[in-house]
From TrEMBL:
Gene3D superfamilies: Aldehyde Dehydrogenase, Chain A, domain 1 (3.40.605.10), Aldehyde Dehydrogenase, Chain A, domain 2 (3.40.309.10). This is Acyl-CoA reductase-like NAD-dependent aldehyde dehydrogenase. Residues 462-473 have a biased composition (Low complexity). InterPro entries: Ald_DH/histidinol_DH, Ald_DH_C, Ald_DH_N, Aldehyde_DH_dom. The keyword Zinc-finger does not apply. Residues 5-444 form the Aldehyde dehydrogenase domain. It comes from Saccharothrix variisporea. Residues 1-23, 449-473 are annotated as: Disordered. The lineage of its organism: Bacteria, Bacillati, Actinomycetota, Actinomycetes, Pseudonocardiales.
């Protein structure tokens, strides 16, 4: 049964209570899914342009309340309010993007016989469950919710239990622009998410979050037949070639490892640097780390996990150049940390740490660094810093990940829609292709009916020919 205890949220900055919310009951969960099932056909029958207009209106409402949502997000997760507001506005832009793309999402015609029409038409899948994370909750939720709603699905959204106030506020604001029941937000812990994922009346389970949860969702949807759309994090590598400026490379590494306190799905998690530039790079990276003011992690429990990765690496022979200690005082702060003398078998190199930690392994050649980067069970993203076009070409072809970035740890054109691989998930999570994930395709063959009189005449001719053949034999 679902755990009915309230979610108590405390500030990761100083530990003060932010608030508490009751979790959804079994009745709430079943009722939300059935309501979504009931209202979805009418929403699907709404003209696509009207669905797009509703999403555009929702984007405007969210934009008008961006400061309010950002303040709540900062209180719950510790993300600086300016950065939190950027995340909210990124969500607004995503809603606006899907408001434009949804109405022009199309099928295609097929070449068949001259007297028939054949075509493939996209249809909404039905009820979508969106399970969204705490590290960038508004932007991620807007992507999944926006693409699902604009294509005619109904959505039941459960935000992370680490930022329920943010998720509830965002959900209420966006839902104002849609018919009742088309978008519902449920609050709860992992048990609520598991119950939603296992519901027989759900057609899609879209999840952004941890790998263990993603595996459980795959098991659940294998029984129900629902589609699983998953982004389960990564263990993104950074490979640094011998021909780049080590100070520039250090700035890139720091940006990738320390932004949002390392709590991004595409954060740099492991670094392989060529020995020719290793000493200068490490010196510069240590200096860069000093410029990053310590930020809180989402909560004390997560800080324990991050510090455990660091402590275990040190016990196995890694050296701390800077950071690596739990600071005194309230909150869940953790400093920018640089580790050297790391080896690929250390847990800090094998698993997603999801904190402001830059573990560095020195390699003898670019080929060795690339080979080590390839060895990983995840497949989200990776970055290569090199002045060699040949090495860049070699890298993007060899790395088994959804996104390869050359000479920039972050960046990319709007509308990119990479597919995570292996334990990082399945399906497109962004861009126009997400509309394809939220729809299914029906093939239609439209032939001509034969008029009754013509059919009778054809029958008589066939019968007469048959009698003639019989009499001749």
């Amino acid at each position: 049964m679902t755990d009915m205890r309230a979610l108590d949220i405390r500030s990761p900055r100083d530990g003060h209570p932010v608030g508490h919310l009751p979790t959804a009951s079994e009745h709430d969960i079943a009722g939300a899914v059935l309501t979504a099932r009931e209202v979805q056909p009418k929403w699907a029958a709404t003209p696509a342009a009207e669905r797009g207009a509703a999403l555009r209106q929702a984007a405007g409402v969210l934009r008008a309340h961006a400061d309010e949502v950002a303040t709540v997000l900062e209180q719950e997760t510790g993300r600086p309010v300016a950065s939190a507001r950027e995340g909210v506005l990124a969500g607004v832009s995503t809603l606006e993007q899907y408001a434009e793309l949804g109405p022009v999402h199309r099928g295609r015609s097929l070449l068949g016989s001259w007297d028939a029409a054949d075509f493939m038409v996209p249809e909404p899948r039905g009820v979508v469950v969106a399970l969204t994370p705490w590290n960038d909750p508004v932007a991620v939720a807007c992507g999944l919710i926006g693409a699902a709603l604009v294509t005619g699905n109904a959505v039941v959204h459960k935000p992370s239990e680490r930022c329920p106030h943010t998720g509830l506020l965002m959900g209420q604001l966006v839902a104002e622009s849609f018919p009742d029941g088309v978008l519902q937000t449920l609050i709860g812990n992992g048990q609520v998410g598991a119950r939603l994922a296992a519901d027989q009346h759900v057609d899609v389970v879209a999840h952004v979050g941890g790998t263990a949860t993603g595996r459980s969702i795959l098991a659940a949807t294998a029984k129900t037949g629902a589609k699983a759309l998953l982004e389960n994090g990564g263990n993104d590598a950074l490979v640094i070639d011998a021909d780049v400026d080590p100070k520039w490379a250090a700035a890139q590494a720091a940006l990738g490892a320390f932004t949002n306190a390392g709590q991004l799905c595409t954060s740099v998690e492991r670094i392989f640097v060529h020995e020719a530039v290793a000493d200068e790079f490490l010196q510069a990276l240590e200096a860069e780390a000093r410029n990053w003011v310590a930020q809180p992690l989402v909560d004390v429990e997560h800080r324990k996990l991050v510090h455990a990765h660091v402590a275990e690496a040190v016990a196995d022979g890694a050296e701390v150049l800077i950071g690596g200690e739990v600071p005194d005082g309230p909150g869940a702060f953790y400093p920018a940390t640089v580790l050297t003398r790391c080896t690929p078998d250390m847990r800090v190199m094998r698993q997603e740490t999801f904190g402001p930690v830059a573990p560095v392994c020195v390699v003898e050649s670019f080929e060795e660094g690339l080979a080590e980067a390839v060895v990983d069970e995840h497949g989200l993203a990776a970055t290569v810093l090199t002045g060699s076009m040949a090495h860049a070409q070699q890298a993007w072809r060899a790395l088994p990940v959804g996104t390869v970035k050359v000479n920039a740890v972050f960046g990319g054109a709007p509308g990119g829609a990479a597919q995570p691989r292996r334990m990082s998930g399945t399906g497109f999570g962004y861009g126009p292709e997400l509309l394809d994930e939220m729809t299914t395709v029906k093939v239609v063959h439209l032939g001509q009916a034969q008029p009754r009189r013509q059919a009778e005449a054809d029958w008589r001719r066939t019968a007469s020919a048959s009698r003639a053949v019989s009499s001749s034999t």
